[in-house]
From TrEMBL:
EC class of the enzyme, as a word: lyase
SUPFAM superfamilies in alphabetical order: L-aspartase-like (SSF48557)
Places the protein is found: Cytoplasm
InterPro entries, per the entry: Aromatic_Lyase (IPR001106), Fumarase/histidase_N (IPR024083), HutH (IPR005921), L-Aspartase-like (IPR008948), Phe/His_NH3-lyase_AS (IPR022313)
Molecular function GO labels: histidine ammonia-lyase activity
Family from the record: Belongs to the PAL/histidase family.
Catalytic activity: L-histidine = trans-urocanate + NH4(+)
Lineage: Bacteria, Bacillati, Bacillota, Bacilli, Bacillales
CDD domains attached to this UniProt entry: PAL-HAL
Pathway noted in the entry: Amino-acid degradation; L-histidine degradation into L-glutamate; N-formimidoyl-L-glutamate from L-histidine: step 1/3
PTM annotation, UniProt: Contains an active site 4-methylidene-imidazol-5-one (MIO), which is formed autocatalytically by cyclization and dehydration of residues Ala-Ser-Gly.
The protein's name: Histidine ammonia-lyase
Gene: hutH
Chief site of localization: cytoplasm
The UniProt record lists the keyword Ribonucleoprotein: no
Length: 505
């Protein structure tokens, strides 16, 4: 069980909650802060003071005073009118992450919601009730208004949820579980939708997938290096220490460790003096992407524990300030950085695929074909990899450099961070397929070389990979092989960070 307090939620804990179904609990001290913040809102309502989001309209309507009798109704109108997202729904893991992140933000005690709102979010997370949330429609400033409104609809008993493998009406699921819909009170609707939890939730999923991929690519590149009888001298520690990037040094050390007992690895001058950049510069390129991931991780873990709604309530209600913490620029930039980092992993992977299949660049059978000419072998797999990396280049265009004014120009600069996060996800999916193609080709090339000559670590990876994709003895439709290996890479529980010196059975 993971206890949330609004302050120290980590990516590792999020992984446990969304993928391993660890229960979430509420820190009692944090809930006390929620109660005090709510008391402050109720005092404002009783006093009749005009405060944005409590008894005013929203956006351009912020100067419109709402009658006291309509304050609660205002919140329901807000949720319903803003729930206009379009497109495919976010995956359930993103929906669950949004619930947990919104709950964690409210537990900071700056938002003025009642404890029952936080408790209902907890129940949704623990019961695996996933709101159906359209993925398109957020500008990433004023918060992820449209996506979070679809989440908030579920709290009031409206909208749809994914529950026990089926999409159902929220009303039906509440009836099954004996839940009563919440009636939102002053400020609660705004507190639920003014935030960056859609882009941050998608960012969490992206980071966890990219982190896994960045570990896997070193291993697969090592297999390619062995298959092409690559030169290990380029990974000498002195070279990388001379430059000074820790991540570059780490990648070089991993490649050296993985290939340490290989009989296929060569030294400069034995077969050639230098390898092409896609082999020789593995530490520099992979290492730079690792640097980017470290930046993304830092920003996500700050945002996961941030108060991002507006206004915020401080000093037991003595200070209520309207600001702009809902602006998603920090996550927008991080997601754009992540897009480029992962796209580059796919770019260099595709270049290694070309070196594996092109008979003008190696001494292997053309396109790794079992019968060159009659059979095309891996020829079109390289085409697919090239197509995917080209698609990634368009998706990698920074979303954060765009802005379109909204709400009658009151909200005149927005982040587009949720678009960046969605595009980052697609780049990662594409990259997983490119990396899978590299591994398929590297395994086939390794068979031609003699897999028993590879290092024990690479033999171990080869044995695991062959359980997913069998050897190519005759042309077949390879799309299922690519998809199967990409799925395996995205789900496998193998610890890619350590060395295994015995071959798996």
């Amino acid at each position: 069980m993971i206890q949330l307090n609004g302050s120290d939620l980590t990516l590792q804990q999020m992984k446990g909650i969304i993928y391993d179904d660890e229960f979430v609990a509420i820190n009692p001290d944090s809930m006390e802060k929620v109660r005090k913040s709510r008391e402050a809102v109720e005092r404002i309502v009783e006093s009749g003071d005009t405060v944005y989001g409590i008894n005013t309209g929203f956006g351009k309507f912020s100067d419109v005073r709402i009658k006291d009798k309509d304050v609660d109704e205002l919140q329901l109108h807000l949720i319903r009118s803003h729930a206009c997202g379009v497109g495919e729904a976010f995956p359930n893991v993103v929906s669950k992450a949004m619930i947990v992140l919104r709950m964690n933000a409210l537990l900071k005690g700056f938002s003025g919601v009642r404890p029952c709102v936080v408790e209902r979010l907890r129940d949704l997370a623990n019961e695996n009730i996933f709101p159906v949330i359209p993925s398109q429609g957020s500008l990433g400033a004023s918060g992820d208004l449209a996506p979070l409104s679809h989440l908030a609809l579920v709290l009031v008993g409206e909208g749809e949820v994914h529950y026990r493998g089926k999409i159902r009406s929220t009303k039906e699921v509440y009836h099954l579980l004996g839940y009563e819909p919440l009636t939102l009170k002053a400020k609660e609707g705004l507190a639920l939708i003014n935030g960056t939890q859609a882009m941050t939730a998608m960012g969490v999923i992206n980071y966890l997938a990219a982190e896994r991929l960045i570990d896997q690519i070193d291993w697969i590149a090592a297999m390619t290096l062995e298959s092409l009888q690559g030169i290990i001298d380029a990974f000498h520690p002195a070279i990388h220490e001379a430059r000074g990037y820790p991540e570059q040094m780490e990648v070089a050390e991993r490649i050296r460790a993985i290939t340490s007992d290989s009989k296929l690895i060569t030294h400069q001058g034995e077969k050639r003096v230098q390898d092409a950049y896609s082999l020789r510069c593995i530490p520099q390129v992979h290492g730079a992407s690792r640097q980017s991931l470290a930046y993304v991780k830092e920003k996500l873990e700050i945002e996961m524990n941030a108060a991002t709604d507006n206004p915020l309530i401080f000093d037991d209600g003595k200070t209520i300030v309207s600001g702009g913490n809902f602006h998603g620029q920090p996550i927008a930039l991080a997601m754009d950085f992540l897009k480029i980092a992962v796209a580059e992993i796919a770019n260099i992977s595709e270049r290694r695929v070309e070196r594996l299949v092109n008979p003008q660049l190696n001494d292997l059978p053309g396109f790794l074909s079992p019968d060159p000419g009659l059979q095309s072998g891996a020829m079109i797999m390289q085409y697919v990899a090239a197509s995917l990396v080209s698609e990634n280049k368009t998706l990698a265009h920074p979303a954060s450099v765009d802005s379109i004014p909204s709400s009658a120009n009151q909200e005149d600069h927005v982040s587009m961070g949720t678009i960046g996060a969605r595009h980052a996800h697609q780049i990662i999916v594409n990259a997983q397929k490119v990396v899978s193609i590299e591994m398929i080709c590297a395994m086939q090339a390794l068979e031609y070389r003699g897999s028993s000559l590879a290092s024990i670590s690479v033999q171990n990876l080869f044995a695991r990979g062959r359980k997913v994709v069998p050897t190519i003895i005759e042309d077949r439709a390879y799309s299922k092989d690519i998809e199967a290996l990409a799925t395996w890479l995205s789900r496998d529980q193998y610890d890619w960070t350590i060395q295994h010196k015995t071959i798996s059975s």
